[in-house]
Amino acid sequence: MDRQPGGGPWDLGNFKPDVAYPGGTAGTSDQAKQGNTIGHQLDGQNVLFLDSHVEFAKRSYCSIEDDNIYTTSRDTAGKGDIYGVMPVASSGLVPANRKDSILVHDPDTMGGGTGGTTKKR
Fold first, then answer.
1. At CA 16, angle to CA 37 and CA 87, rounded to 5?
2. How far is CA 31 from the centre of its chain?
3. pLDDT at 119 over 50
4. Whole-structure pTM value
5. Those residues with Cβ within 8 angstroms of residue 104's Cβ, 6 or more apart along the chain or in another chain
6. Which is higher by pLDDT, 3 or 74?
7. From CA 2, how far away is CA 37, in angstroms rounded?
8. Residues contacting residue 6 through CB under 8 Å, at least 6 positions apart
9. Which whole number is the average pLDDT over 16-37?
């Protein structure tokens, strides 16, 4: 997957999914793009899927149940999360549940572990 230039998380304050979701309203296309990588001018990101294919995804919520690949799910019971929360830098960063896909940054920015991979439980 593409990572953010500079290695760290970015401000998701202007991010709002452009689809209806439980408990919220849909944002605009421009608001949804605020969750994409700046490496592709917010147009999307390259995503490596478990079946080994790579796809250019136009939204960061492109995993199981529209889970956001750059954030950690707020639901520990087992659902993906279109918003999520920004992961805290630590060597023990793990997904919140079986459907939570998160991008794990390189060791120099996340405090250790294997970089450039996606962890799934």
1. 60
2. 15
3. no
4. 0.70
5. 93, 110, 113, 114, 115, 116, 117, 118, 119
6. 74
7. 7
8. none
9. 86
